[in-house]
Amino acid sequence: MNKKPRNIRTELTDEFKRTPEAPAVAIEDFTNLKHQPGWGRLCSVLDKKIADYEKEILDTDTDGEELNRKRDRRDLCLYFRNLPDILIKALSDAVNAPNVELDPYVKIERKEK
């Protein structure tokens, strides 16, 4: 059984597009989250963790799988720290995207000169 790999970003943004007003509400919620003191503290902890991982990556003599795991952990921290910004951008792009008609049989109104 071949399952299609999950795209977490798409799943998250789809979750916030169920109704026409949902993206705007989600954008406001994520913007508010970024300004919460708890989120600021969490970002401080993640920034220190990211710096520690980068120091380990630069100072290590190992290569291969161990180095890749350190990079993966650093990248995961970076992704989680930036998740509200990532979702805000994805939802903003979805809200501002032009409505494209894919039906070739739709009449196109032309301006008379």
Describe this structure in words.
- By secondary structure, the protein is an all-alpha fold.
- It has one domain (9-95).
- Helices cover 66% and strands 0% of the residues.
- The protein has helices at 8-15, 22-34, 37-59, 65-81, 83-96.
- Helix 2 (22-34) runs antiparallel to helix 5.
- It is elongated.
Between the first and last Cα atoms, what is the distance in angstroms? 59 Å
Low-pLDDT windows of residues: none
Helix content: 55-70%
Q: Tell me the count of domains.
A: 1
β-strand percent reads under 5%
Mean pLDDT: 82
Q: What's the gyration radius in Å?
A: 21 Å
Structural class: mainly alpha
Number of helices: 5
Shape designation: elongated
Give the ordered list of helices and strands.
Answer: HHHHH
Brief synopsis:
The chain has 113 residues and is an all-alpha fold. It has helices spanning 8-15, 22-34, 37-59, 65-81, 83-96.
SSE layout:
Blueprint: H1 8-15, H2 22-34, H3 37-59, H4 65-81, H5 83-96
Helix pairs in contact: 2-5, 3-4
Keywords:
mainly alpha; 66% helix; 5 helices; 113 residues
